[in-house]
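Input record (one chain):
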Amino acid sequence: MCGMKEIDPKTTTRALAYELWMKSPMPMVTLFKTLDVTPLVRLTKKSGFKFNMLMCWCIGKAAVSIKEFYVLPVGDRLMQYDDIAVNTIVANRQGCISSCDVPFSEDLKLFNEDYLYLTGQVAETCQNHDLPSSMVIGTSALVNCEIDGAVGMYSGIFNNPFMIWGKYRSHFFKTTLPVSFQFHHTQMDGSHAALFLENLQREIRGISAAQ
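The corresponding structure, as predicted from the sequence alone:
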């Protein structure tokens, strides 16, 4: 059964990071990267898959092989999770926004089904869909704006990793997308975050094989 449990930081590889960063006034770190998302754009046009859904699936796929993603500081505790979900922001029928956690599945078609059903439900009911027993990677897509990234998202409450992107940029032979990835330093180091971004680019390039 999927779930979460509290663990002793001293028994993990994050023990020193826990000591150094848990009480830091600004424990978040942000990395920037420009991704080549040409394969996603091509697949969107060919299959009808939503670009945002494909990005969310690739984000989950890039994270699942990195063990640090399964540990997250919550309050003053360190929690261990069994699974990962990807959050997306949904425009609801009241003209506002709601939050939707989508459980990650290695099966792209299954993830797409869950994504469409859950985001549709959230848009209609205007009620957030939360998966508190999953380690959730937050995302925010500002698709009408060209941005290079965002920093300073630390609320002091939510420590989840968070990715932001804007409008993708079309060139002659490829399409690029600048992204920013924010993470709590207790959860992972810069090397883990950089590996995640490398994994993300690899998953995007190999998206056709996932169908």
